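User: structure tokens for this one?
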Amino acid sequence: MSAAKTRNSDNQGDWSVHTMTTGRYVCIHGHFYQPPRENPWIDAVEIQDSARPYHDWNARITAECYGPNGASRILDHDGYILKIVNNYERISCSFGPTLLAWLEANAPDVYRGILEGDRQSRERFSGHGSAMAQVYNHLIMPLANRRDKETQIRWGIADFEHRFGRSPEGLWLAETAVDLETLDLMASHGIAFTILSPTQARRIRPLDNGPWTDVPGGSIDPTRAYKVRLENGRSITVFFYDAPISQAVAFEKLLDNGERFAGRMIAALSNDRPSPRLIHVATDGETYGHHHFKGDMALAYAIHTVESSQAVTLTNYGEFLDRYPPAFEVEIIENTAWSCPHGVGRWREHCGCNAGTPGFNQQWRKPLRNTLDWLRDTLAERFETEGQRLFRDPWAARNDYIALVLDRSDQRATTFLEEHARKPLEPHERAAAMKMLECQRHAMLMYTSCGWFFDEISGIETVQIL
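Assistant:
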């Protein structure tokens, strides 16, 4: 794939035509995310030597993944370019707000390609955009208090609406870490669906209240949508991705060949089980180019193969859910995630999960978590006490502070304070109000999940959250 030639592709046909007629559907989800890497004192990303020859890891992964997926080449068997495509038009994708903020400032062409991909996906998939929102800075929601969960969801939705110009239908949970309180808060804010690992399902039953059936060890049928019943009559839909195919994409070199990737998905729908059915995979988006060299091209060719097939139809979650609402409900296993077999232990204790570096243990995780919890609670008490002097409701002001994170102009700050301040503020009071809110922002950023994920406390991820 390294060499590419061009030739007329008029005879290749129009593979952008979309219909939903087969009863068998395919969706590919990429979770694109980078942690906030900015030095908190200067709000800029400093040189990261391990990312050489690039300035930092954001820049390196953009060059290897985010950029190429916006203009990916489809080659024929002779190495000629048939088409250059924006993969973001055809896949489901969730982009972390902290990554989108960096791309907007540092890779505006890539950023615009992502937004354009979502716009085009709405035309392709019956008005349903393929982009999903995400909890704001990738903290592990079951380990957060209710107040932080609320702000993370509000900020994730507000950031999405600011960038994509529409309300999100779905919301991605960091590491798919889930509990019922989080799902209920999501539903209360209008979120229709999320994606989980099949190992996070406990049991299912038909919506007509038939008998429950246990689905241990990830044995749930991933080709259906499922309803989770919540408080006060609310509910949310969950899609459980196909674990074997997702695992093969991420770790078993299925991306070595885009045609084989497509064939694996199509074959998963080839038996005689009743339709409609959806085969869908979910991996880190960085799989497509960063973790796997030229993975964006394998993805593009896989999509091309799926769209050329008469056996299946490409779709996204919003379109499928609109056409085929859940017929089954599910009970989830709370306090679980896709990347830790010990629940959510990877982000709070020495559970056994690590990146495999010899000579290290993760006994530092628990005291780090406990210390940050102490710091969060201490700051919250001060914020509430001191904030009462300046804000009508300090926590409502924090929930709305995302407006200032997205627009730091003096005019926006003035409007914000007119909405939330108890009285017209003197300059020193205005400065104090902004410091309090910025302190609260960093009190959430310090919980970014990467800080606990890897082997040692001196790694760049844990140093960042500290």
